[in-house]
Design brief:
Length: 257
């Protein structure tokens, strides 16, 4: 399967899932546009590395996904956007009565509103090109809730709802819009929490992973960024042309409970 000649824009892709998805899209032949809010040499170096490794075109575009204008400018600066992966996201954990208002606003803006802006900006180009794929990286928290994650759960449920709406608006066109709902994924962010959790519970690494971190994930195993990248590539394939407006869980059985 090849995505040669297609350009993929992946928001929040200088680390974790976004970078993993970008790598798998590049491996499948797509040109990739990486993004985050920073503008460091190492961000641009990531794009150069992908171009070298997979023989594709790659660029890094700085844009802050908490700002609507930046979201829309990202699509414009990308030059083309056949595949849009909305991945940028942040988290904050707090009981609702003390949830900081600025954290609420930032999570809703980055995790949900950015999807509205990028999709609105990308759709006209997809229509003109006669092909498009939108993959929104939601979460198991787009389908279920956990305490203390009001903003994250609200934003991810919003993403799932918006995904269905855009799928209906494009249903008779060669464009699909789906959401992937990961459970716990082993990203650098999650890896960094392991030592502290080991200390807090006086447990070894494996015990902490299986009994504490993956308590809600029946497989007792993390999903990987490669698996999420592979699921994204599948959603971009011809086999998935009639899959639209739905969610694919990559959560080791979390939402089956
Ligand atoms: P991460 O922190 O490694 O990656 C988040 C990315 O978003 C980074 O590239 C970061 O630079 C970028 N980002 C943050 N704020 C931004 C902004 N204002 N503008 C542009 N980019 C910004 O985390 P991750 O685990 O790879 O998460 C990626 C996505 O996957 C998020 O939407 C997250 O909610 C979702 N997710 C993660 C998990 C998990 O277990 N790791 C599970 C379910 C869903």
């Amino acid at each position: 399967m090849t995505l040669q000649g297609k350009t993929a824009v992946i928001t929040g892709s200088n680390s974790g899932i976004g970078l993993g998805v970008a790598r798998e899209l590049a491996r499948a032949g797509a040109n990739v546009v990486l993004n985050s809010f920073t503008d460091r040499d190492e961000d641009h170096a990531l794009a150069a590395e992908l171009a070298r490794e997979f023989g594709i075109k790659a660029q890094y575009v700085q844009a802050d996904m908490s700002r609507g204008d930046d979201c829309r400018a990202l699509i414009e600066k990308a030059g083309a956007c056949d595949i849009l992966v909305n991945n940028a996201g942040i988290q904050h954990v707090s009981p609702i009565e003390s949830f900081p208002q600025d954290k609420w606003d930032a999570i809703i803006a980055i995790n949900m509103n950015s999807n509205f802006h990028t999709m609105a900006a990308a759709l006209p180009g997809m229509r003109a090109a006669g092909w498009g794929r939108i993959v929104n990286i939601a979460s198991a928290h787009g389908l279920t809730a956990s305490p203390y994650k009001a903003a994250y759960v609200a934003a991810k449920h919003g993403v799932v709802g918006m995904t269905k709406t855009v799928a209906l608006e494009t249903a008779q066109e060669p464009i699909t819009c789906n959401a992937i709902c990961p459970g716990y994924v082993l990203t650098p962010l999650v890896e960094a929490q392991i030592p502290d959790t080991m200390e807090k519970y006086s447990m070894g690494r494996e015990e902490v992973i299986k009994k504490v971190m993956l308590e809600r994930q029946p497989s007792r195993d993390f999903a990987t960024v490669e698996q999420l990248g592979g699921t994204t590539v599948f959603l971009c394939s011809e086999a998935a042309a009639q899959i639209t407006g739905t969610t694919i869980s990559v959560d080791g059985g979390w939402t089956a409970l």
